[in-house]
């Protein structure tokens, strides 16, 4: 198990349908349409991109730049400065301590950052 004694498995979630309905509503329903119409964020889900404002020259320019950038967009599956196993080990260690210690999400994020940042810095120093 990744998180020690606790098994975190979405298959055991009590409200799967409700969680997915919220996800679809927030990222593809009226809230997503409102965000797109206001020009907030990069709207690519369910055609919301067409709702982005384009009435003013700067809005059209922003859309043009965004369209050109999306052809180069990809999600990195790794960091060149740290190994996946180091990230996994740090996350496992800090998540177990944080969950067992009842840390807030903010304190847990701070703890994770405090273990990963030195590893990232060390990786950057080794590459440069």
Q: How would you sum up this structure, described in words?
A:
The protein has helices spanning 16-28, 30-38, 57-70, 84-101, 105-127. The protein has five helices and no strands. Helix 1 (16-28) runs parallel beside helix 2 (30-38) and helix 4 runs antiparallel to helix 5 (105-127). The model is unreliable at 1-5 (pLDDT under 50).
Helix and strand layout, with pairings?
Layout: H1 16-28, H2 30-38, H3 57-70, H4 84-101, H5 105-127
Helix pairs in contact: 1-2, 4-5
Helix content: 55-70%
- The secondary-structure element order is HHHHH
Largest sheet: none
Distance between the termini: 36 Å
Shape: flat
Strand content: under 5%
Low-confidence region ranges = 1-5
Average per-residue pLDDT, rounded, comes to: 80
Structural class: mainly alpha
Number of helices: 5
Q: Whole-number radius of gyration?
A: 20 Å
Question: How many distinct beta strands?
Answer: 0
């Amino acid at each position: 198990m990744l998180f020690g004694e606790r098994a975190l498995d979405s298959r055991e979630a009590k409200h799967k349908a409700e969680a997915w309905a919220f996800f679809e509503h927030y990222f593809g329903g009226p809230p997503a349409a409102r965000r797109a119409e206001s020009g907030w964020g990069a709207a690519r889900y369910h055609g919301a991109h067409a709702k982005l404002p384009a009435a003013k020259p700067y809005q059209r320019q922003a859309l043009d730049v965004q369209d050109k950038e999306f052809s180069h967009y990809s999600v990195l599956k790794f960091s060149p400065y740290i190994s996946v196993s180091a990230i996994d080990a740090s996350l496992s260690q800090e998540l177990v301590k944080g969950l067992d210690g009842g840390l807030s999400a903010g304190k847990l994020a701070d703890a994770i950052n405090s273990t990963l940042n030195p590893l990232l810095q060390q990786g950057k120093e080794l590459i440069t």
